[in-house]
TrEMBL record:
<dbReference type="InterPro" id="IPR036878">
    <property type="entry name" value="Glu_permease_IIB"/>
</dbReference>
<feature type="domain" description="PTS EIIB type-1">
    <location>
        <begin position="421"/>
        <end position="499"/>
    </location>
</feature>
<keyword id="KW-0472">Membrane</keyword>
<keyword id="KW-0808">Transferase</keyword>
<feature type="transmembrane region" description="Helical">
    <location>
        <begin position="114"/>
        <end position="136"/>
    </location>
</feature>
<feature type="transmembrane region" description="Helical">
    <location>
        <begin position="12"/>
        <end position="31"/>
    </location>
</feature>
<dbReference type="InterPro" id="IPR013013">
    <property type="entry name" value="PTS_EIIC_1"/>
</dbReference>
<feature type="transmembrane region" description="Helical">
    <location>
        <begin position="316"/>
        <end position="343"/>
    </location>
</feature>
<keyword id="KW-0762">Sugar transport</keyword>
<keyword id="KW-0813">Transport</keyword>
<feature type="domain" description="PTS EIIC type-1">
    <location>
        <begin position="1"/>
        <end position="404"/>
    </location>
</feature>
<feature type="transmembrane region" description="Helical">
    <location>
        <begin position="262"/>
        <end position="286"/>
    </location>
</feature>
<keyword id="KW-0418">Kinase</keyword>
<keyword id="KW-0812">Transmembrane</keyword>
<keyword id="KW-1133">Transmembrane helix</keyword>
<dbReference type="InterPro" id="IPR010974">
    <property type="entry name" value="PTS_IIBC_nag"/>
</dbReference>
<feature type="active site" description="Phosphocysteine intermediate; for EIIB activity">
    <location>
        <position position="443"/>
    </location>
</feature>
Amino acid sequence: MIKYLQRLGKSLMLPVAALPVAGILMGIGYWIDPQAWGSGNIIAAFCLKAGGALIDNMALLFAIGVAVGMAKDKEGTSALAGLVSFLVFTTVLSTASVTVYYKALGLDPTTVPVAFAKIATQFIGIISGLIGGHTYNAFKDTRLPKWLAFFSGRRSVAIMTALITLVCCIPLFFIWPAVYNALVNFGQAIIGLRGVGAGIYAFFNRLLIPVGLHHALNSVFWFDIAGISDIARFWGSGAKVLPLSEVMINTLGGGQVSATGIYMTGFFPIMMFGLPAAALAFVVTAKPEKRKMVIGLCASAALCSFFTGVTEPLEFAFMFLAPVLYLVHALLTGIFVALCAYLPVRAGFQFSAGFVDWFLSFKAPGAKNGLLLLLIGVVAFVVYFVVFTVLIKTLNLKTPGREDNTEAEDADDSHVDKDYQHMAQEIFAALGGRENIVSIDNCITRLRLELVDDNLVDEKRIRNLHVSGLLKPGKNNLQIIIGPDVQFVADALHKIAGM
């Protein structure tokens, strides 16, 4: 089950990867025309509309992206299947269609649940992607009689997807209103907790990183699953989903500020300052003979966290080496997110809470006192550095560079290998060769491998490549944490393995 959920989490990264360009376009648009939001400048209008085209259709992107991610060979037919499923769901269960059903059943059409007006959500997009991906895997090799041969193989996938989705629409017709109401109630309950609720969300957001389920939690608060839609409301796209955008929070100074953005703002101090400070703590507490290696490992990961908000390379460097420290990291994230919710400061992102999104969000409708986050970030930097340094030394935690003198000691610390071909060759050899490799895949930072026998893996040889970490999510499964450039290693490994 965990393996399946991790695969889903990886699949979600494909459509999420479309958000940076949307953020850049909308950020430029708001920067050019912050008051009229495009009606006063043609360039701003083009940028805002182009960015909004992606944000407003994230559910559709999820349907296509998840379908491709769940397909065994990532073939394009799976994307078509995801699209077919999404179109069937959103048409058969639209308000207009359900109104017709009510009339046919002799029911009052004015009592059609509002849930059906929100059927085109990321949740339905994910379900459509799962149906499309699994239907593709099941029917791509189907052979039919000669008189139906035209519809054999991949041509049968779209047909079967439509039929399977239609069947799924029947139970969803009855349970969707209940599911929708439960999600809305959950979102409203968290909104009701104001900043404390934002902190609770942020805490669990970090705890779910190791299993890749944080994306599912994020979708409740950032997108339109429960009507919160924090990203869309912050950027002024779909801001009137529910009256939640009118919720105000009493600040620590006695004033009031909108709740819009509270599920994003507090992440900026953590990703831009807190985690880089943790990286510095790893460097200063590392053993002298290993400090050079730790600098190479942590410097790039810290810069990645600061500029782009991609934190996995750094977090995976210590979450399994020192789980207590990772729990502290999750707690600190919750505290800073809650604190920012009660301060007159708001910033948002389209991709993640890095410098690029912070800078481009200044002119967004939901933005407020973005420069104040620099001061909060300095506080986060000091807190993280002090807390991490004290805990590492006091508890003698085995953070990077403090491992016992075993296999890591033999590594060549002169440089971090950026020769992807060489790295792939070393990994290939360390895995035991082609006979021991079942499948090769990757997400945004991890090389995901399914093996015949994980006992044949030479972990020492892999660690000597200065990767951020190794993870074994299940028997005969191995994940190598490489970083944002993992795709180049995966591509090279595919070629070497002939897969």
